[in-house]
Amino acid sequence: MPFENFYKETDKTKRNQWMILVLTLIGIPVFIWLFWLFLSIIAPPEKSPEEIEKIIADSEKLTRADRLCKNLAKPEQFEFSYKGLGGNSLTASVVYRFKTERPNDEIEIFFRLMLTSDGWIEDKSELRQFKKGKQSIVLERFGSPDANWIISCQEEYK
């Protein structure tokens, strides 16, 4: 019969389509996992608290930025969770992470009132950034189980 070969080819095509679908569904997660593994291998390891403290102690600008963050008044129930380093070619920056159950609006109002009453000028071009001379304080909401606010204290190099 003339259509006998047609049905065999159609079955073969369907089988090939299913194989491609199954390999794709398995291949994509495997590729993502391998890519994540590759990135975790080449990423620099996180510094220990002792290493961070030594780096801060060896730099005048980081020491001043760290002192600024340490001495900053903080609202009640605003718990410290991590300290790290930040910055770029223009600024030296110390980054503190905090955890709180208080509403974000309360936290923002507290820092805005406290900083502006102490002579800090809010930079309207940047969200929640306050400047005084060569120093600045940046407040950021953060989405992590161990911290939901970041405070970066920075000093310009120039």
Describe the structure in your own words.
This protein is an alpha+beta fold and 158 residues long. It has two domains: 1-43; 49-156, no CATH class. 47% of the residues lie in helices and 25% in strands. Strands 1-2-6-5-4-3 form a six-stranded antiparallel beta sheet.
Radius of gyration: 27 Å
Query: N-to-C terminal Cα separation, in Å?
Result: 87 Å
What's the β-strand tally?
6
Class derived from helix and strand content = alpha+beta
Mean pLDDT: 86
Number of domains: 2
Strand composition percent? 25-35%
Largest sheet entry: 6 strands, antiparallel
Number of helices: 4
Low-confidence stretches: none
Shape: elongated
| Helix percent band | 40-55%
Can you give me a brief rundown of this structure?
Helix content is 47%, strand content 25%. It has four helices and six strands, in the order H-H-H-E-E-H-E-E-E-E.
